[in-house]
């Protein structure tokens, strides 16, 4: 039997890890974004709520099961999806807080918002935690969904 | 007419002399929890820069944060503020909050229907010395309006 040494990662600061994450996001490289996270990394997009008749879908779960799906869906709906990072603040415990704008032009449905070719750019706040191995083990984000919906011309409060 | 006026907590009693950025922010949040707007503002610099994205406050200042705090404690007199997490990253302190309460007056254009509100928020503070000099506030106004039974973003006051 052959044993394989675990891949070694060049350890950088938590702020560098998160900066690289946003660079991957700019390239729409969801695989790299996911690989930068631990297998069990927590994911929470707080404003993400899709209210159905019998249940509410929330953007809470794990990066590999929920986050990856949301990122891919966003990029599919907004093929020119972009991010502009304004600040990255970190501490020596692995906490990283990012202020950024995320935006794009809608080409296919997103949630209940039908595509009208609308373009949005909305301030976001991301809170990450990076573990001692340089892997992201928590991603949480806040933004004003009403701001996005207004820009896209979707005025119903679903 | 109010018979009793809420007394603001003196800054010394709040322990904000030679404090860490987190302690300064906690003094603000603790006062906010007590619905004591003036005490919360006592740790905010008069030249503070304020951005409250859901309320469309951009490049705002001291009066804007005063108005925002006053509006919410007035509209939700049973306001319950849960401090879920406070993260200090140098001079920047980020607080994750849950704001809960029962609407008792119009708020952000939404007519009072006595609905219960619970909305998760993130407040990012910048601290200089023992004063807050920057506040960026994030929550989803869609979630807030949904809980207050608003149906459309272009007809917020229509029930």
Describe the structure concisely for a colleague.
Chain A has 158 residues and is α+β, with helices and mostly antiparallel strands. Chain A has helices at 14-26, 30-35, 63-77, 145-152; strands at residues 37-51, 56-62, 82-90, 95-105, 119-130, 136-143.
Question: Can you walk through the features of this model?
Answer:
Chain A: Pfam families: SnoaL_2. Chain A: It comes from Amycolatopsis dongchuanensis. The complex is a heterodimer of chains A (158) and B (159). Chain A has four helices and six strands; from the N terminus they run ααββαββββα. With 158 residues, chain A is an alpha+beta fold. In chain A, strands 2-1-6-5-4-3 form a six-stranded mixed β-sheet. In chain A, β5 and β6 (136-143) form a beta hairpin. The longest helix of chain A has 15 residues, at 63-77. Chain A starts with 13 loop residues before the first helix and ends in a 6-residue tail after the last helix. By secondary structure, chain B is an alpha+beta fold. Chain B has a single domain, classed as Nuclear Transport Factor 2, Chain: A (Roll). Chain B has four helices and six strands. Chain B has a six-stranded mixed β-sheet. The radius of gyration of chain B is 16 Å and the shape is globular. The model of chain B has no long low-confidence stretch (mean pLDDT 92). Chains A and B meet through β1, β3, β4, β5 and β6 of A and β3, β4, β5 and α4 of B.
Topology (SSEs and partners):
The complex is a heterodimer of chains A (about 160) and B (about 160).
Chain A: H1 14-26, H2 30-35, E1 37-51, E2 56-62, H3 63-77, E3 82-90, E4 95-105, E5 119-130, E6 136-143, H4 145-152
Parallel strand pairs in A: 1-6
Antiparallel strand pairs in A: 1-2, 3-4, 4-5, 5-6
Chain B: H1 21-33, H2 37-41, E1 44-52, E2 57-60, H3 62-75, E3 80-89, E4 92-102, E5 116-128, E6 131-138, H4 141-147
Parallel strand pairs in B: 1-6
Antiparallel strand pairs in B: 1-2, 3-4, 4-5, 5-6
